[in-house]
Amino acid sequence: LEKTAELDPRQNYLVGFHPHGVLAAGAFLNFCTEATGFSTLFPGITPHLMMLSLWFRIPFFRDYAMSGGLIASDKESASYVLRKPEGGNLLAIIVGGAQEALDARPGSFTLLLKNRKGFVRLAIQHGTPLVPAFSFGENDLFDQVNNPKGSWLRRIQHFLQQIMGISLPLFHARGIFQYSFGVIPYRRPICTVVGKPIPVQKKEKPSEEEVDQVHQKYLNELSQLFEKHKAKYNVPEDSHLEFI
User: Fold this and answer.
1) To pair with 5 at 20 to 30 A between CA atoms, which of 13, 41, 77, 224?
2) Closest by CA position to 20, among listed 42, 49, 58, 53
3) pTM of the model
């Protein structure tokens, strides 16, 4: 975990996390555990990661998830965190969601973000600064069966996602005792870079134009964050973020 700016513990923040990857391993490790020393890097900040509401219907697993700071991905839960007057709360949203997982494969930098603006509207309604975060190596943990848009596999995956709310990427990596095949992730590093906060002016009912302006600024900041740090994490110079 790497920070590029200080976060004021008297304020709440909304972090957009990219990319989702197959299992969102980087998001979980950084914001739900102390594996990367979050509390040392951001003292006074309590992280909360949003997860599909579906998982909170499973007894015992729900309690385990909540103990790690995970909250349901609905507007009420998000607003509850962001409107806390004492500040010191960080709400992390994996903006691309389950659908983006279907494009997660090594060397891919495609983000489902062009028309995802709900998190921006939420930030404006609460006057909460937006913070872009990019996780280098997130897509390198697994290989995925080829599923280009328009293929029969992609259509089935999209159909199942609409029914169940979760996507089903056909991924594989290594086994426990061999590297040929299995579902254990490859031993590849993940480094999540947290960008600087983007100030947002509070407005209860922002117009579409106001949301679009902040959204475009967010895209620009995320692109700059990626370009500035990609060489450090062995990303080819000719690789750039693609927003779809």
Assistant:
1) 77
2) 49
3) 0.94
